[in-house]
């Protein structure tokens, strides 16, 4: 009988979560670098350069790859010949590990988990509870797969109960464009097929714990139906031309994973769950000999990518910006932002719109200002702010018209595309939406020179901050005439890819 100490479980979970907050899996780094080297779209290539530079910086600085440090998911296989020494349940041990990891003083991770999800949505302050799946198996060890799943990619999960004769490939190719870029491609797609509705979703999530190996599969050839699906979907999803960050390009997915299981004769349950450019997962086994040890990767394993101002990006002074200058920008232009930038995301927007509807004055003057959709990580040491990458902009779409028409706001900065409701409001107000790269949060934070809370301090990371930025890189995603690069870019690259395949 193997005896596993309570403290070893807690420490191992905490160490693993700290580890994956700043170390990308090496297979992911290699896959992005390979995609970067062959990318032909300048915008997508620049986005992947930022992701790779950010990844190396995070590894060096031991700070989060992304400001959204995720909700913790654990797949735990418990051997039948194991006993635990301690007074906590295994679930409580795992959650205590999460608690310690997210409150680690040297690398504070953002607490994003809210209780009472359809009510008060109160932050639990320590990112607990984790979502834990158990399997009781033969043996004398406990096997852990630990992941930290970002909200932006999780929000793009899809499920359908197909008819038995329906095509999985056709359904996936219909769904991926609907997912937009809020899941921060390039990344992985996990596909679960069979079982029941909840089993298909679980299979899709578990498949994302696998390493990237699509090129090895291509080299040896498919041996099962699930492997045939992987190869077919990898080629056809990338042929959609969505590209890195949805800007249009050759690589949308780095790999496609497919797990399947038997199902009822009347059903074909199918689930898609994407993993983003902040893919974070680790595997370890406890055998009673002590806590797990995860070997730190060597920095030379990261490619040396030169990224910086190439002279093509226009410097913008946010402190003297005018509506006329904003209206001169065109979709696809690249800018470097300088000056004072306000922040605000879901909770702040809802509160402001409610105040406007009640005729109350806002605590901040937004006249000729820009707002950045971000919930930063708390700073440590001498940092001005922790990693501060953009959050998914579409969640603010329903507030956009009111904010533009009632506050004097002239621009927004966020992640991924905007929906038609927001695009119409942007065009009508002759405003602009700028896109920062999702998955490059530590890199973005280095452009922030000063930070202070200016309103709604009780909202924590969702408070309104004022950042003073220097050369913060962004792309004009929706210009004042309503042209969206997330609509034009993929169409252009889908056509180019089709021509290449015909040649």
CATH topology of the domain at 314-489: fumarase
Specify the structural class: alpha/beta
CATH class of the domain at 314-489: Alpha Beta
| CATH superfamily descriptor of the domain at 314-489 | Fe-S hydro-lyase, tartrate dehydratase beta-type, catalytic domain
Write out key terms for the chains shown.
single chain; 503 residues; alpha/beta; fumarase; five-stranded mixed beta barrel; 34% helix; 24% strand; globular
List the helices and strands and how they pair.
Elements: E1 2-5, H1 6-22, H2 26-38, H3 42-61, E2 71-79, E3 82-85, H4 90-102, E4 114-115, E5 122-123, E6 131-137, E7 142-149, H5 151-154, E8 158-162, H6 168-178, E9 187-195, H7 197-207, H8 214-220, H9 225-238, E10 253-263, E11 268-275, E12 281-286, E13 314-317, H10 323-326, E14 334-343, H11 346-357, E15 370-372, H12 397-407, E16 411-414, H13 420-429, E17 432-435, H14 441-445, E18 448-455, E19 464-478, H15 485-502
Parallel strand pairs: 1-3, 2-6, 9-10, 13-14, 14-15, 15-16, 16-17
Antiparallel strand pairs: 2-7, 4-5, 7-12, 8-11, 9-11, 14-19, 17-19, 18-19
Explain the overall architecture.
- The protein has 503 residues and is α/β, with parallel strands linked by helices.
- Among the domains are: 125 residues, no CATH class; 176 residues, Fe-S hydro-lyase, tartrate dehydratase beta-type, catalytic domain (fumarase, Alpha-Beta Barrel), CATH 3.20.130.
- A 5-stranded mixed β-barrel has the order 14-15-16-17-19.
- Helix 1 packs across helix 4, helix 2 packs antiparallel against helix 3 and helix 12 runs parallel beside helix 13.
- The longest helix is centred in the N-terminal third of the chain and has 20 residues.
- The chain is globular and about 75 Å long.
């Amino acid at each position: 009988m193997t005896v596993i100490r309570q403290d070893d479980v807690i420490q191992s979970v905490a160490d693993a979560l700290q580890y994956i907050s700043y170390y990308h899996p090496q297979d992911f780094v290699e896959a992005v670098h390979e995609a970067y080297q062959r990318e032909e779209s300048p915008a997508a290539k620049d986005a992947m350069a930022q992701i790779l530079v950010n990844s190396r910086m995070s590894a060096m600085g031991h700070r989060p790859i992304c400001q959204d440090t995720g909700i913790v998911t654990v797949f735990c296989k418990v051997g039948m010949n194991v006993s635990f020494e301690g007074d906590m349940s295994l679930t409580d041990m795992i959650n205590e590990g999460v608690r310690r990891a997210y409150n680690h003083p040297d690398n504070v991770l953002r607490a994003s988990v809210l209780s009472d999800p359809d009510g008060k949505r109160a932050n639990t302050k320590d990112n607990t509870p984790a979502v834990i799946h158990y399997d009781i198996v033969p043996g004398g060890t406990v096997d852990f797969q630990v992941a930290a799943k970002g909200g932006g990619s999780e929000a793009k999960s899809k499920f359908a109960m197909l008819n038995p004769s329906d095509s999985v490939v056709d359904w996936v190719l219909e769904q991926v464009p609907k997912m937009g870029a809020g899941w921060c491609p390039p990344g992985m797609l996990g596909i679960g097929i069979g079982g029941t509705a909840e089993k298909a979703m679980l299979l899709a999530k578990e498949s994302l714990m696998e390493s990237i190996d699509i090129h090895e599969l291509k080299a040896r050839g498919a041996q099962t139906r699930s492997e045939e699906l992987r190869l077919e979907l990898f080629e056809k999803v990338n042929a959609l031309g969505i590209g890195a960050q949805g800007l249009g390009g050759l690589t949308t997915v780095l790999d496609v994973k497919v797990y399947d299981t038997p199902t009822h004769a009347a059903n074909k349950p199918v689930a898609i769950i994407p993993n983003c450019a902040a893919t974070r997962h680790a595997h370890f086994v406890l055998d009673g000999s002590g806590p797990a040890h995860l070997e730190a990767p060597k920095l030379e394993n990261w490619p040396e990518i030169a990224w910086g101002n190439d002279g093509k990006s226009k410097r913008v002074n946010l402190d003297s910006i005018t509506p006329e200058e904003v209206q001169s920008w065109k979709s696809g232009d690249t800018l470097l932002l300088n000056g004072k930038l306000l922040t605000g995301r879901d909770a702040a927007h809802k509160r402001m719109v409610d105040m406007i509807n009640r005729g109350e004055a806002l605590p901040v003057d937004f006249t000729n200002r820009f707002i950045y959709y971000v919930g930063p990580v708390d700073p440590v040491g001498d940092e001005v702010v922790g990693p501060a990458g953009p959050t998914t902009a579409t969640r603010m779409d329903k507030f956009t018209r009111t904010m533009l028409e009632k506050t004097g706001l002239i621009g927004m900065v966020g992640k991924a595309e905007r929906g038609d409701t927001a695009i119409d409001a942007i065009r009508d107000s002759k405003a602009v939406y700028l896109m920062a790269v999702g998955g490059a949060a530590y890199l973005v934070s280095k452009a922030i020179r000063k930070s202070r809370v200016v309103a709604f301090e009780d909202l924590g990371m969702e408070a309104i901050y004022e950042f003073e930025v220097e050369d913060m890189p962004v792309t004009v995603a929706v210009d004042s005439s309503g042209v969206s690069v997330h609509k034009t870019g993929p169409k252009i690259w889908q056509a180019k890819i089709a021509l290449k395949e015909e040649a």
